[in-house]
Each structure stands twice: as structure tokens, then as C-alpha cells.
């Protein structure tokens, strides 16, 4: 007889002030590169912040003098880690808020950014999460909502996952992009499965700050290193496991690599 699982959905709220930066005369006349801002929050606090491999401080962290480009952000606190790519937009503050955990399935958080436009766009991991804005149901992710500027509360939920609630300010003439990672409820951590790849897919290893890509024995930064691959090495994708890929190297080694450092290149018949 199957056991009935009672899901405990935890609402986690954060008030985020998204700030516009005004261009100045130096940018307009002398062509100085536009700047953008980054604010990073975490639970627990005092997590070490790395930007493109360089340690820059502890959470809560904020900088309003960053060049507009894509960065690799890593947060580390004891045995809990998170790493991801973040693209900063000109004249806007991007906010990262993470609940750190040793296991990926228990980690959650959101990235909030502004781009020219109107409304709110919500994307989630896992997909097809239900979205409520200010208590009104709008549909499932990914979705874009045409909504007036002001203070809004975005609630994202999915069966078997802990829900998240984000309170943010939407400036006029901007689109607020909310990227949400949901954590599995404790009741379902032992039952988590990953999709098996039935069509053989090739991957290619990307450049990394270390010059190589670690292959680990489990999908976690705490996993034991069992091998390394070089940039441009070809790999076979076996399973997709969220932020990790289970792969097989050309030498037959099987293990997990970070998904941000590999790219799908073609399917094999």
C-alpha cells in the first residue's frame, strides 16, 4: 500500500528594492562603459562570494560598479555551495537570494533582474510551477504577465516542492524577470528521480576558471572527484540531474559534471 505523503510548503519572503541607475554625462559624452549593480543575499549569512573565481566578500554583498556582462557567481558557506551564471543589465540592480544547502535538491532561491519593458516574467526550476501575483492566479511557468508598476508579491509553488514568495518593486517602464529554484520537500527527498536520456546526446566541455572540469561521483560539489576532462573534450550525456549532468567520457568513466560547463552539440542516431 502506498504511503500518503503530506507536503509541508514553506513560504519564504524577501523584500527586494530594485534600483535604477541614471546614466551620467561621462557615459554619454566620453563613452565610458555602462555600469550595473549586483546584490547577493543568503541563508545562512556570511557566505563567501566569488565572482568569476575571485573572492570579493561575504553575504550580504552589494556592488553598484560592475561592467555589464555575464558573470559566474559562487556562494560558499561551510559544506553548502551554490554556483550559477548571471547576466547583468545596464542601469539596473540584479538581486540573488539563495537558501544554501549541501544537497542540490534542498537548495532554493531566486534571481531578480530588470530589463526594459513592462510587467513580470517568471521562470522556474522545475517547470510548470503555479504562479500567483498579489493573491491572483496567473498560470504556470514560464509565463509573462502584463501588470502595472508598484510593489508586487509573486508566489511560486509546485507539487512536492517548497513554495517561495517574493516581494519586489516593479519600476515603471521595466519588466521584472524572476528566476526561481524550488527545493524538494523533505518528504520527497528520498523519492527524487532524474530523467533518463533515451536518445544518446553528445556534450562538449566548456572553458572553466581552473582550466579543467571535475567529474564527481555524485551530483554535488561535495561529491568526490573521480576524474577530470579538458575544455573541448566530447562527452556522452546519460542523465540530466538539475544543475548536474551524468556523463561518460571517451575513456568510459561515468560520473557527474556541472551543467554550466558543458554544452549539447548533437544527437547520435
From TrEMBL:
Q: Pfam families, from UniProt? A: PEGA, SH3_3
Q: Where are the transmembrane segments?
A: none
Name the InterPro entries for this protein.
PEGA (IPR013229), SH3-like_bac-type (IPR003646)
Task: List, for all copies, the residue spans of the domain called SH3b.
Answer: 198-266
Matches recorded under PANTHER family: S-LAYER-LIKE PROTEIN (PTHR36194)
What name is this protein filed under? SH3b domain-containing protein
Species of provenance: Candidatus Daviesbacteria bacterium RIFCSPLOWO2_01_FULL_39_12
